[in-house]
Amino acid sequence: MEYDFKALAQLYKNALLKDVIPFWEKHSLDWERGGYFTCLDREGNVYDTDKFVWLQNRQIWIFSMLYNQLEKREDWLKIAAIGANFLAQHGTDADGNWYFALDRAGNPLVQPYSIFSDCFAAMAFSQYAMASGESWATEIALQAYNNVLRRKDNPKGKYNKIYPGTRPMKALAVPMILANLTLEMAWLLSEETIENVLDMTVREVMADFLDRDRGLIYENVAPDGSHVDCFDGRLINPGHGIEAMWFVMDIASRRHDATTINQAVDAMLNTLNFAWDVEYGGLYYFLDADGHPPQQLEWDRKLWWVHLESLVALAMGYRLTGREACWDWYRKMHDYAWSHFADPEYGEWFGYLNRRGEVLLNLKGGKWKGCFHVPRALYLCWQQFQALS
Amino acid sequence: MEYDFKALAQLYKNALLKDVIPFWEKHSLDWERGGYFTCLDREGNVYDTDKFVWLQNRQIWIFSMLYNQLEKREDWLKIAAIGANFLAQHGTDADGNWYFALDRAGNPLVQPYSIFSDCFAAMAFSQYAMASGESWATEIALQAYNNVLRRKDNPKGKYNKIYPGTRPMKALAVPMILANLTLEMAWLLSEETIENVLDMTVREVMADFLDRDRGLIYENVAPDGSHVDCFDGRLINPGHGIEAMWFVMDIASRRHDATTINQAVDAMLNTLNFAWDVEYGGLYYFLDADGHPPQQLEWDRKLWWVHLESLVALAMGYRLTGREACWDWYRKMHDYAWSHFADPEYGEWFGYLNRRGEVLLNLKGGKWKGCFHVPRALYLCWQQFQALS
């Protein structure tokens, strides 16, 4: 692979518009009941009809974002609308909290225990409001955003099983959510709010969750950023850390803050070195920072989103800094990801490989994999290489 | 391997008394703070000091049971006591509900969300009360037993995330718990209570959870025993089903009910045929009854307890029925389990292998593996082969 950024931009554009988006357009739409099927086998056949609210919102977001950013295609807006209308009708309880799962018809199956459901709802309805101009969508987005702000200090609410006080910890996910959401909702927020939230979240991630000595991003730390010697406190989630680093790069680049960009690139490169499987290639899903056995039995699986977020982070890191290490790692990641996850025969990418890189689950979508990481990453990589060319 | 039942009895006895019990005696005892360390690496070094209440109770149970059933060794009683005293002091909240996890000193970490914590407490303190003669231990056992009865219709209580009414299901674990507990508490219960509970639970397992047409035990079914076409409703947990079948055989043999014994043996054999990995050997951890991708990413791992419970079920099935299929399967399971999980070099058994049978986590104990399935199965297999010889 040479430095042919134009060809890379074309590769990502084609994969997005001729492979991945058509897969979801063809197989995922529930025209009868509304919303989307996400449990799709390799060929796109529906094997389960439950509707998981994270994934419903994420698909609304993708189609609205493409409409807003790329091209005003009426069919994209229509696809976003069948999800948005379904969720507007069925997605929340009487208090406006977002359920985790619904059945095909929209009846609630799993209670609103996850702040991420509200987070993805805010993202989805904000993009959809921008695309459709519907004021009811703006209202839903703002209500979900306020849910997130209200819930951020106790994201699981009454479903939180942690005993208070014994061993307080905070999670990387919370500042990540806030940063992400604030960028998504920027068109509805004041400049001052945006700047304050971004300042706060970037500082928290880079000061508390990033261990400068080890160069690793921890998933959970004590409130003061120190380490806690327990399973959760030792947990490294490389894909999540790397995703956080491109969020930080993206924010820092808007502010022309080269120091923070380079810190984020350093952390990303350290994480890649730490988490790359030298025997079989690919990035581990979970690791213990101190080399102890992790509690997650799936720790050595190779997951699609981990590798796609790494491609985005590396392409962005290279575009912003020109550092050779980014390019070397990009090539390595590109070769692994495109040869193991992509499935040009049937479209979309496989989600779950075993450690050796063999397909573990013969699916394109499920309870946790929907229309989100693949198209978002393809879109972002396309943008990076277009800028580079 | 010939029909040398005497040699097999000796093998299991030696493994129990010269390998596995000494491993826990040597490495797991926290003389300083009380209770047990369960996070032990291959060699027995402690890598995490948190105390998981399931495993604390299960170790109390094992040492009390050995004292009650095998030999009145004072050191076994003393080991049971350091767990029992620790948990009597720290194990429950003010209302007597059993926490899920404590830190090394006994401070609560995870709330009492699991009915199994109460269940294992009832088992542990019942055995310990019998061993020690302490009336406070009997009181704790009875209180935990009443917790289980109170919680059985909503085992997770306020931590239950399932939305009520949309898609009611019941779990195999609940009748299994009740049957198991009733046998454990038999010395404290009336004959009538025992018979009623055993009648009810065996009938429920064999009529509702066992699908006679497919010969498979489902993990979750509708309240009337019909199937529900969703991830949880399609879930097969072969180790759990096989464990349930030896519980049923054990109960039925006390009642000289050959019909039920043979039904349980049939279901066990069908489950083994369904869940055996013909390519690499061993039993899968989770399967989808209809062949769809399971939601559990760890579905193809080979777990110690699945294989140990199968050894118990097969040895018991063979002892009770003399059916050749039990013996053929026993030999196959014996060869796989002893060659892959046992670790005579350092003692105890590995817990987690990948699909190919290679060690996945280099540990002898963790958050979910403690001093329980290995010694219990070794003890029970020893008893079966002693009876056969």
The name of the CATH topology of the largest domain in chain A is Glycosyltransferase
Q: Quaternary status of these chains?
A: homodimer
SSE-based structural type of chain A: mainly alpha
End-to-end C-alpha gap of chain A: 15 Å
- Give the strand order of the largest sheet of chain A, numbering strands 1, 2, ... along the chain: 3-4-5
Which key features would you list for this structure?
homodimer; 389 residues; mainly alpha; Glycosyltransferase; three-stranded antiparallel beta sheet; two-stranded antiparallel sheet; 12 helices; 54% helix; isomerase activity (chains A, B)
Can you describe this structure?
Two copies of one chain form a homodimer. The first copy, chain A, is mostly helical and 389 residues long. Chain A has two domains: 131 residues, Glycosyltransferase (Alpha/alpha barrel); 181 residues, Glycosyltransferase (Alpha/alpha barrel), CATH 1.50.10.10. Chain A has twelve helices and 13 strands. In chain A, the strands form six sheets. Chain A has a three-stranded antiparallel beta sheet. In chain A, strands 1-2 form a two-stranded antiparallel sheet. In chain A, helix 3 crosses helix 4. Chain A is globular. The first copy, chain A, starts with a helix and ends with a helix. Chains A and B meet through strand 5 of A and strand 5 of B.
Write a brief structural summary.
Chain A is mainly α. The first copy, chain A, is built from twelve helices and 13 strands. In chain A, the strands form six sheets. In chain A, strands 3-4-5 form a three-stranded antiparallel sheet. A two-stranded antiparallel ribbon of chain A has the order 1-2.
